[in-house]
Amino acid sequence: MKNTSLILTSILVILTFLLTRQYYLPDEVIHTDKHDDDNHEQEKVFSPELLHEFGIVVETASGGILEEIIELPGEIHIDPDRLAHITPRFDGVVQKVFKQIGDRVKKDDLLAIIESNESLTMYELRSSINGIVIDMHFTKGETVQRPDHYFAVADLSEVWVILSVYQKYLSQIEKGQMVNVLLNSENQILKGQISYISPTLDERTRTATARVIINNTDLKYRPGQFITGQVIVDNSYKNIVVPKTAVETINNQTVIFVVDEHGIEKANVSVGKTNHINVEIISGLTLGQSYVKKGAFVIKAEFEKESFGGGHNH
Length: 314
Description:
There is one protein chain. The chain is mainly β. Helix content is 13%, strand content 47%. It contains three helices and 23 strands. The protein has helices at residues 2-24, 48-53, 296-307; strands at 31-33, 42-44, 57-60, 62-78, 83-86, 92-97, 104-105, 110-116, 122-126, 131-136, 143-144, 151-154, 158-166, 178-183, 189-197, 207-215, 226-243, 248-250, 253-260, 263-268, 270-274, 278-283, 290-294. Strands 4-13-16-15-14-17 form a six-stranded antiparallel beta barrel. Strands 3, 18, 19, 20 and 23 form a five-stranded antiparallel sheet that branches. Strands 5-12-10-7 form a four-stranded antiparallel sheet, with no helix packed on it.
């Protein structure tokens, strides 16, 4: 009787353990020791559900084009050839004003009617270009005279990006190079091409200027707005390229988390060229090897728990 009771109790304990393990660790969520040279490394296996929950994305290592860039500060300017200051032909009194700042106008649209001081006859002031009224000094009933009174009309469908080129970069900046133009408040990129580099330096800032002409039909880029220009100075193929989100630092070592059928483990890597998005991997990762492309910081936290004796992982 005692033996039967002992056997039943043992079976119950085993079943309870297996059911509990199945509940808490679905899809083989386990971590098993895998000793390396330090006898401390662990290979960790995470369930698909957990990977999805933390936004972890796995990718296969491959080569690709890596753009080497130089970042330069810049500002949006109006193309001087697309800016018109429309002034009265004769001094006189403003009888009517038809347009205000912000109004769109077409060439020959009526802006104001002025009575000449000399002839006392009325004459019309009309726009000389298509564009937007960006400034004006005209009020009904006031006496107007050149050059103090005018309408400023700008065609902003194209604008200039003026980049400040520091002396140390001058030898690397050339006409024809492609530039990623980024608004400082956004991540959206517009591409352009350097069309001009000033032959002299600004005496105050000791910088040259580079000009990029960009399409602005949606009026997203506004004159006076600060931007960042990423000048592409090299555009070469690298054997292995990964996003920066895949690279972490643990114990002063640059690592990537590699993935195989057994789980996830960290691999020390050497990096080469980098830009704002991608990193060239020289060693530590091989072509075709799976690695954590996004969410590596979550995996890093799990490994650091182990380093500091922080319990088990799920």
